Amino acid sequence: MSYFCSRGLWICSRQLLNSQARNLSKLLTKTRAYSWAATTIAKEIQDQPVVVSAAKVKQPDAVYVEFNDNVSWCFKNIWLRDNCRCPECIHPNTLQKTVETMNLDLRIQAKNVRVNKTGEVEVEWISSDESAAHKSAYDAKWLYNYSTCFRNSTNIKRFIHPPVEYWNANTFPTGKPPTIQFEDFMETREGLKTFLEGMIKYGIALVRGTPATEEGIIQTTERFSFIRSTMYGKTYNVRFIPTNPRLHLAYTGLALEQHTDLPYKETTPGIQILHCIQSSLVGGTHEAGGMSIFNDGYYAANWLKKNHPEHFDILSTIPITFTLFDTAVNRWYTSIDKVIETDHERNIKKIHVNNRSMSPPEIPGDKVTTFYEAYQKNCTIQKLVKARKRR
Prior knowledge:
Helices cover about 20% and strands about 25% of the residues. It is α+β, with helices and mostly antiparallel strands. The protein has a 6-stranded mixed sheet. A 3-stranded antiparallel sheet has the order 2-16-21. The two termini are about 15 Å apart.
């Protein structure tokens, strides 16, 4: 048996669209893009020291805090009490909140407020009927960071991760995204860190020298995440099997156009791993060949948002039904999502593009043509920004 000489393993997140050659082993992981790696890489942030210059009761329902850069804010009593950092309110081992928000007194009062010797803001609480008391201490930097979101809603950060970069075919001078050798990835902390940083920034990475076995793909995955099984099992093999009486399109030999996988599932993959185990049989021999094509779905959606906002709006507001009939178990899978899913601030959150699984769109009559114009424009941009990798 002859394997591809490159034996490279592609790992991608961020809803990258891909189309693959035959005979790939595919594997999904549970974790979402970015968030898992943000907790793995310890980054030292060099900020100016934050000092509380004054703290006092200024309003009946708030504590006034002034910082050394003359920034000040009145923190509401109920918010401060609910987010007390003491061991009674935050479990010291799990760091999870133990205080019950529903049981707090909405009219709780700050009886005494002071800045202690370590620079923390200490607050002595008492309930409105004076039946209960509690003491809290708040770190100056912690208070300052949260004051920024109170002062300006654009500063609200739901989770923290290093900067990301949308990419196109010209982003990588060598034509390859961040690449690392299997041994370095598996055996060194620095190798793992390099891999994770590349994954966070671009949403795609290549691990060279991965063993050309299904065990190899599992071993690589478990180095940085855990595996989520699907209805296809722990891994899924893309093969040309013309004699299979219950075919999936992946078995038919038809070209797999660029797509995101499993849009018909309630939760789409956060990270997907593609590994070529064996090349196609060409002329009686296994030859290293074929092509993997990837593109950054976020790049295309962001381009659309800037250049054709009306198209971005319709793709991010019209719900589409994605379906698959699993012939092996006679079962339908169905999920309703938008082609471009955004968060509450209209930032791009997910991409769902899979023409094979898209049911007839149910769209208001006056928006049908606009929807198809937007869909085709989005797919055209995706084809223009794609990156190719020969196996």
